[in-house]
Fold this sequence. Notes:
The protein is mostly helical. It is 58% helix and 0% strand.
Amino acid sequence: MSTISAAPEQRTRWWHRRTWWPPGWAPLAALLAGAGVAHWVLPAAFESLVPPQLGAPTPWVLGSGALEIACAAGLAAPRTRAAAALACAALFVAVFPGNVQMAVTALGSEHASAWYQAGTLARLPLQVPLVAWAWSVRRRVARGPRQESVRPGFHNAGVKH
């Protein structure tokens, strides 16, 4: 069996192919809206994330929930999507100390299970893909609407160029 390889300029690198990652703005907005509402409905669940140096945790929890909801709303509006995506990336960076505090608290607790402790540690590197996701939404908006592409080497019958 012989294989025909495309010219170098026609090859697509694996990281340039359109894949499922990163998803678009809508799932990011849904994630942020859900998290923001959860901050307001169950603030006690998030209070342990606030470093003690910041004082009373409730205003910080409610404030971060409001920011998450605002980011979600900004992503939903096409005119503010790029700025909101940038704000999302900044928010994900800004809340990272809270995730560190959560892990420190869990590791120092006699009541936290080993699974919970492992989960808080595993959560730390997950901020990186969240920042990358927000950044990719901003880049997509900056690029503008996607143009229909014609695959090299294929004749697109009936398609006018």
